[in-house]
């Protein structure tokens, strides 16, 4: 079951990850899904419940990118799948504005609460107002497997539920942080007789470490771990290896690839009503390498397209799914701020991004030039999924309707 698929994929262009690496990440995702998720009691519920007829997938386009580097004409070369494959079958809002805090946790929380958030930027606090996950699960009486967050950003462990007492943990989304699961998988593979099979353990362990050596993620190692404890010594050595690696900005990261494969696994196993897929590798821009930033944009462009193709290939999702794709933040302008590297200045380039909506609720080959806001997305998704979002500040986008 851990055989690596023999098929070889074409390189998508400069900066694309090689086939061997993708095979490995696919294997890792399958390993995690097979050996970790069921042990967390996330096996498909046998309970009877009315499964909502519609699916919504919200994708953060990857850790923050500027309009000029993506959907402005000078950026089209960086996003060939968005511009050539997705836009023609989508409804495009070319001007979406983040009017809140331009950090990753607060901006992504705004996307799934419909309200600007002002909590700890490093993820030590949950969103302050109810998330779409909680509202959907509570109102529709849905089990946990109907809502998921799959996040490359390690600070997102608390993004699945708010601190609101009327909602909170009992109605939380499942939050999957693939890097943490990867570490657990390594631990399991080397420390038990179960897992990938005794004879495969050594090879598997080497493959895992090799994946880490190639650079799993680029920036911002921080984990708010609660229930799952890794062996301290192993964890320490792995963390050190990862941290050493993070300090080498010349190495491409691959966290989003694993997030993508994990999202596919979750879709295949649970067909959830609502997913937030947090791509984040573009944030490698903090290291100041414009070429690595563009490379990450290209990879995110490809992964979004592959995610949409996954939807189209699934009888469960095809025709019943609306996909929202939006950068959670832009990045500083060259003139007013620090340039593409950061997203702290709060200037227009930090705030102005775009929203692409495709699928069931989205008219094709159309768009609206009026400015919209990040907080409008959750209310729109709530309308599509058929639930209320009582504390949202945003408004449903009227162009998108079932
Ligand atoms: Zn950042």
Indicate the topology.
Layout: H1 19-35, E1 55-60, H2 80-86, E2 90-97, H3 104-113, H4 132-140, E3 147-151, E4 174-176, H5 178-191, H6 198-213, H7 232-246, H8 255-270, E5 274-278, H9 290-312, E6 321-326, H10 348-351, E7 352-359, E8 366-367, E9 372-373, H11 377-385
Parallel strand pairs: 1-5, 1-6, 2-8, 2-9, 3-4, 3-5
Antiparallel strand pairs: 2-7, 6-7
Residues 64, 104, 283, 286, 343 line the site of zinc ion.
Keywords:
binds zinc ion; 402 residues; 11 helices; alpha/beta; single chain; Alkaline Phosphatase, subunit A
The number of helical segments is 11
Globally, the shape reads: globular
CATH superfamily: Alkaline Phosphatase, subunit A
CATH classification class: Alpha Beta
State Rg.
20 Å
- Distance from N terminus to C terminus (CA atoms, Å) equals 40 Å
CATH topology: Alkaline Phosphatase, subunit A
Largest sheet, strands/sense/barrel? 9 strands, mixed
Order of helices and strands: HEHEHHEEHHHHEHEHEEEH
Proportion of residues in β-strands: 5-15%
Give the beta-strand count: 9
Number of domains: 1
Low-pLDDT runs of 5+ residues are: 1-17, 38-44, 195-199, 212-231, 241-252
- Overall pLDDT confidence: 80
Which CATH architecture is right?
3-Layer(aba) Sandwich
Amount of helix: 25-40%
Describe this structure in words.
The protein has 402 residues and is α/β, with parallel strands linked by helices. It has one domain: 3-Layer(aba) Sandwich (Alkaline Phosphatase, subunit A). The protein has helices at residues 19-35, 80-86, 104-113, 132-140, 178-191, 198-213, 232-246, 255-270, 290-312, 348-351, 377-385, and strands spanning 55-60, 90-97, 147-151, 174-176, 274-278, 321-326, 352-359, 366-367, 372-373. Strands 1, 2, 3, 4, 5, 6, 7, 8 and 9 form a nine-stranded mixed beta sheet that branches. α1 packs across α5 (178-191). The structure holds zinc ion (ZN). Residues 64, 104, 283, 286, 343 line the site of zinc ion (ZN).
């Amino acid at each position: 079951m851990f055989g690596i698929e023999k098929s070889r994929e074409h390189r998508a262009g400069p900066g694309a990850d090689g086939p061997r690496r993708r095979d490995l990440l696919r294997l890792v995702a399958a390993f995690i899904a097979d050996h970790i998720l069921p042990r967390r009691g996330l096996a498909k519920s046998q309970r009877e419940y009315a499964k909502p007829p519609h699916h919504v997938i919200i994708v953060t386009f990857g850790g923050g990118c500027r309009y000029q580097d993506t959907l402005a004409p000078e950026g089209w070369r960086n996003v060939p799948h968005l511009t050539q494959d997705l836009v023609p079958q989508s409804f495009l809002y070319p001007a979406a504005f983040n009017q809140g805090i331009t950090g990753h946790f607060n901006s992504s929380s705004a996307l799934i609460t419909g309200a600007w958030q002002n909590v700890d930027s490093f993820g030590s606090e949950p969103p302050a107002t109810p998330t779409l996950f909680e509202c959907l699960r509570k109102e529709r009486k849905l089990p946990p497997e109907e809502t998921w967050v799959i996040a490359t950003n390690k600070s997102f462990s608390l993004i699945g539920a708010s601190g609101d007492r009327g909602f909170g943990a009992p109605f939380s989304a499942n939050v999957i942080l693939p890097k943490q699961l990867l570490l657990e998988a390594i631990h399991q593979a080397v420390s038990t007789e179960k897992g990938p099979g005794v004879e495969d353990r050594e090879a598997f362990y080497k493959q895992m470490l090799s994946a880490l050596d190639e650079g799993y993620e680029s920036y911002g190692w921080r984990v708010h771990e609660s229930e799952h404890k890794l062996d301290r010594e192993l964890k320490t050595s792995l963390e050190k290896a990862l941290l050493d690696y993070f300090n080498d900005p010349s190495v491409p990261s691959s966290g989003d690839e694993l997030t993508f494969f994990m999202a596919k696994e979750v879709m295949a196993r649970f067909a959830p009503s609502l997913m937030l897929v947090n791509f984040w590798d573009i944030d490698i821009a903090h290291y100041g390498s414009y070429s690595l930033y563009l490379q990450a944009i290209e990879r995110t462009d490809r992964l979004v397209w592959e995610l949409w193709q996954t939807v189209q290939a699934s009888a469960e999702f095809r025709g019943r799914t609306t996909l929202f794709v939006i950068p959670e933040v832009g990045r500083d302008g060259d003139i007013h701020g620090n340039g593409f590297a950061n997203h702290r200045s709060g200037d227009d380039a930090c705030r102005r991004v775009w929203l692409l909506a495709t699928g069931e609720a989205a008219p094709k080959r159309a768009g609206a030039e009026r400015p919209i806001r990040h907080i409008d997305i959750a209310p729109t998704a709530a309308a599509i999924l058929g639930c209320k979002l009582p504390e949202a500040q945003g408004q449903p986008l009227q162009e998108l309707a079932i």
